[in-house]
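To whoever is on call:

I kicked off a structure prediction for a single chain this morning and the downstream step that reads the tokens threw a length-mismatch warning. I double-checked the sequence; it's 225 residues and nothing unusual in it as far as I can see. Pasting both halves so you can look.
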Amino acid sequence: MGTLYLVRHGQASLGSDNYDQLSPRGHEQAVRLGEYWRSRGMHFDAVVRGSLVRHEQTLNGILQGLQSTTSFDPLVLPALNEYDGEALIQAIHPGPRVVADTPERYKQFFRILCDALAQWMAGTISPRGMPSWNDFSAGVRSTLTQIREQHVGHNVLLVSSGGPIATAVSEVLATPAEVMIALNMRIRNSAITEFSISPKRLMLQTFNTLPHLDTDAHRDWATYA
């Protein structure tokens, strides 16, 4: 069997005009993950990522830390891109943008987002510019099938976002919608989720781990957005 390593991007820029950029801390998280894997002799046979800037920047940071001599040509799949959180929120909370710039507004933002996710998944709202939940989850499911069929016995690195990763875990475990949302809200920046790859199925091995930050020097690097 091989292993699929799903990595959420490093800390992005929540509250700024352009969320789709790693913060300095996010870059450090990505490089540190690569360094951790290098210290353990990790190698990858294939690399897959979403097409967002933060996915590319996170992968580049990981590869910088790995210092691998292997030249990767990542498979870039828009199916691994995050849902549009702002469009979801606007669909149920029209008006001025909810800016998560204080602890209370941060809680409000994610409270509304969770409500909007539940309504999107139930098919009761159609946020502007977004696919249906069925199409979004089908894209993640298709990606998992492609990896399972092509990479038995391989180590595969996949860099994406919390939504697609939580959807992947939910697909593998066949969980209800509310569990997918709860998983999504708990995935930390640069966290690793592992699936073992067999010819017939993917199996969850670990979820949302940060072994690269488990030192006194790095424990305060853990972030969620």
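Update from on-call: the warning came from a stale cache, not from the record. Cleared it. Sanity check on the structure: Residues 103-122 form the longest helix (20 residues).
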